[in-house]
Amino acid sequence: MAGPAWLSDIFAGLMLAVAVYCVSRLVAIRMLRKTTEVDTEVAHIVMGVAMAGVFAASLHILPAGIWEAVFGVAAAWFAWRVVRPRRAAQHDPWRCPHPLPHLVECGAMLYMFAALPAVAVTARAGGMGGMGVSATESRFSILALGMTVFMLGYAVWVGNRIPALAATGTGTGTGTTSGGCPPYLAPRCAALCKMAMGVTMGYMLILML
Asked: 35 has which bridge partners?
């Protein structure tokens, strides 16, 4: 992927760190008897590994087709969470209460793996001829721009909620847990992971505009 090599290495390391931390959260909730958004943690694990492979070729472990299938399933899950009837969508502390941003994340990953071959061909073409953009590519660039704005805005929104998380000690900022569930594990750290994912994905999409 284009961009300064040192910055790509930083983002690759950051994504691996997020993935490892999310794995540790899934282990810790059983040991510490706490709760977390399991679907978010799993999504961020696979996204972290996949994005690290995009930024650093040495970390690329699976072909694009497999990643597309993985993120297609994840997108279907979060889409179902978005559209399910409100009366059936009572807060479950083990699932993300705000699935739309994660649906957009999955859509961005699908877009990225679908667009990477075209980006590689353009990069190899070089010169002025390689800089031409078709009408279809232009429409997809507008889509990428929209997702970029959304992801960066999401990172800002999550950062703005961190003081409330610190005050309540929960992952939702509500100050309560439903049904006497265990307390949320390290809500501010979880928010920082979401911010890191949003900023990194925004940067990745900017490189593909």
From this structure: 184
**What is the value of pTM for the model shown?**
0.83
- Would you write out the chain's pLDDT as a tens digit for each of its 209 residues? 567 899 999 999 999 999 999 999 999 999 999 999 999 999 999 999 999 999 998 898 999 899 999 999 999 999 999 988 655 555 677 888 889 999 999 999 999 888 766 554 444 444 333 333 444 455 567 888 999 999 999 999 999 998 887 655 555 544 445 455 688 899 999 999 999 999 999 999 988 87
**Residue 35, phi then psi, degrees to nearest 5:** -125, 160
Q: Which two tokens stand for residue 176?
A: 């309560």
Angstrom distance (rounded) from CA 54 to CA 207: 12
- For the chain, the domains span 5-207
Query: Could you tell me which of 74, 80, 6 has the C-alpha nearest to residue 40?
Result: 74
* Residue of 50, 92, 94, 98 lying closest to 72 (CA atoms): 50
> Where do runs of H (alpha helix) occur along the chain?
5-32, 38-55, 64-83, 99-125, 135-168, 187-207
Nearest C-alpha neighbor of 3 from the set 19, 12, 18:
12
- 35 three-class SS: strand
What's the CA angle centered on 141, arms 12 and 18, to 5 degrees? 20
Confirm if 35 and 45 have CB atoms less than 8 A apart. no
Strand ranges (DSSP E) for 17-120?
none
3-class secondary-structure state, position 92: coil
